[in-house]
Specification:
Length: 196
């Protein structure tokens, strides 16, 4: 499976493409950053990010896009910009019928480092080791994008199995409720609606 990981940001949007094979086999296909000047208008910046992301999607043909889920920060402007870029990326993926998965920063950190509290340096070092890279991707946004892709590759099989199990459990619960209701109706019919 090929995953495009996206660490959304207006000034720097990290992009990383990783192929996952059997087990935990991984290969880094591409890594980079889409940059926009802070002094440009918001619409222009979003269009610039969208252009780069769409170019990556067309060039690398991912099967899924993994985006970092926006979380509350103290700087509302940063959160808004990150959310807007996430929306632009999700839209670009939807236009190509690509599934989109959102992962929280702590999920990504835990997946690649074993700790949901790892700092950016630890994540960058681990992703360098996991992917067998000659050098640590810079800036940190690029390493984070690769970590998102790896997180999705490692979590997706378990998430799929969990979704199947949840669907099966819901189906069993529906069937049980239907049998229970039918039994109650049969009992009422036999007793003429008299409850004891």
């Amino acid at each position: 499976m090929r995953v495009l990981g996206v660490d959304p940001g207006l000034t720097r949007c990290g992009l990383g493409v990783v192929d996952g094979g059997r087990g935990r086999e991984l290969a880094c296909i591409a890594v980079g950053v889409a940059r926009t000047p802070p002094e440009d208008e918001l619409a222009s910046r979003l269009r610039s990010v969208a252009d780069v992301v769409e170019q990556w999607m067309d060039e690398h043909r991912p099967e899924v896009v993994a985006i970092e889920r926006v979380f509350s920060q103290h700087n509302v402007r940063t959160v808004m910009g990150t959310a807007q870029v996430s929306g632009v990326v999700a839209l670009a993926a939807a236009r190509r019928n690509l599934p989109v998965a959102f992962h929280t920063p702590s999920e990504v950190k835990a997946a690649v480092s074993g700790s949901g509290r790892a700092d950016k340096r630890q994540v960058a070092l681990m992703i360098t080791k996991i992917l067998g890279l000659a050098a640590t991707p810079k800036p940190a946004d690029a390493a984070d994008a690769l970590a998102l892709a790896v997180c999705h590759l490692w979590r997706a099989p378990m998430a799929a199995r969990l979704a199947v199990a949840e669907a099966r459990a819901a189906e069993l619960a529906r069937n049980h409720r239907a049998r229970l209701k039918a039994a109650q109706q049969a009992t009422r019919a036999r007793t003429g609606g008299i409850s004891r």
